[in-house]
Description:
The chain has eleven helices and 18 strands. The chain has helices at 2-10, 12-23, 32-48, 91-94, 109-129, 153-160, 209-222, 261-272, 298-313, 329-334, 361-375, and strands spanning 52-56, 64-69, 77-82, 98-100, 103-105, 137-142, 165-168, 178-182, 184-193, 197-198, 231-239, 245-246, 249-258, 282-291, 320-323, 339-341, 347-348, 356-358. The chain has two domains: 2-182 and 294-375, Zn peptidases (Aminopeptidase, 3-Layer(aba) Sandwich), CATH 3.40.630; 184-291, Alpha-Beta Plaits (2-Layer Sandwich). The strands form five sheets. It has a six-stranded mixed beta sheet with strand order 1-2-6-3-7-16, with helices on both faces. The mean pLDDT is 96. The protein is an alpha+beta fold and 376 residues long. A hairpin with a 7-residue loop joins strand 1 and strand 2. Helix 1 runs antiparallel to helix 11, helix 5 (109-129) crosses helix 11 (361-375) and helix 9 (298-313) crosses helix 11. Zinc ion binds next to helix 5.
Amino acid sequence: MxxxxxxxxxxxPDMIALLTELVNxxxxxxxxAGVDAVGRLIAARLEALGACxxxxxxxxxxxxxxxxxxxxxxxxxxxxxxxDTVYPPGVxxxxxxxxxxDRFYGPGANDMKASHVIALYAAQALRATGLWPAREMxxxxxxxxETGSHTSRRLIEDTAxxxxxxxxxxxxxxxxxxKSSRKGTGLFKVVARGKAAHAxxxxxxxxxxxxxxAYQVLKxxxxxxxxxxxxxxxxxxxxxxVTNVVPDYAEIEVDTRVSKTExxxxxxxxLFNLAPALPGSTLEVSGELNRPPMExxxxxxxxxxxxREIGRRIGLDLxxxxxxxxxxASFTAALxxxxxxxxGAVGDGAHALHEHVLLSSLPExxxxxxxxxxxx
Length: 376
Ligand SMILES: [Zn+2]
């Protein structure tokens, strides 16, 4: 197993070159052309490594790319990677790639183009060192994770259902830890409608939608319970227009997170049963729980312990911890498939200005990825 590490360490310059090429190919979720350009780069690499490559074409989202090694080889392991980023086209002009000592800065480097490099080089290392396993290995590159995986969810579930392990290649925790639980996420919109009236001449006849929505903001915020792992965050508010008119319209957008599956249902019930506080006003609620939580349970702990044991063989002492964000791990975990997240690079600042990866982590994480594929 240690030969994986030494082989990959020698590949670091090539890994950096590929990471640079990937980061320099901007791939905002809403920009199909950009995401597809990354998809073509990935498909070419997968083919060169001997994978059977399928392109799952999409009309408006980017195409998904699936590379399968050893089809029919049994005991399949599926790896999940997303090609899209949260950065609109043009971001590179303001924030070009730069390397400062061990840090590689660039939009989308940590989340998760470094993961692409890690997975591709893990396969290459398995070939080069003679540790190539007989099992089926599926590398699933999707195009719309950052906006909720609406076109990729079924593909993710279909490729996970019979898998012995789902490795979700999101970035590691800042200390290199794996992600053993994730919150479920929901996004809802609440619209309040009142009655417009002259703010002076007919104040008493108006029903102020902003006042109504203000009640709902306070109510929802007060339901946050950190102990229970449930949060409500009103993240946007709009309404009214001119000051001399009692406003008849206001709306909020609410981000909700839950740690337990049953709390997801509770959150839905709370939202869809909100009652107006002002006589005569009405509320309309829309939205959904996009991702179920990936709960921390005995299965998750068992998966982690096994990965940790494999990690020891290449000199890593892995830890694990929770992540507040959503990922596709929620979909595979909800199917009961052994799932662990955070196999990507060590770094920091996903979705932020200081997004970077530690270059020294690339060979290490690729070796971990390869070792798990070989030894699971
Ligand atoms: Zn991500």
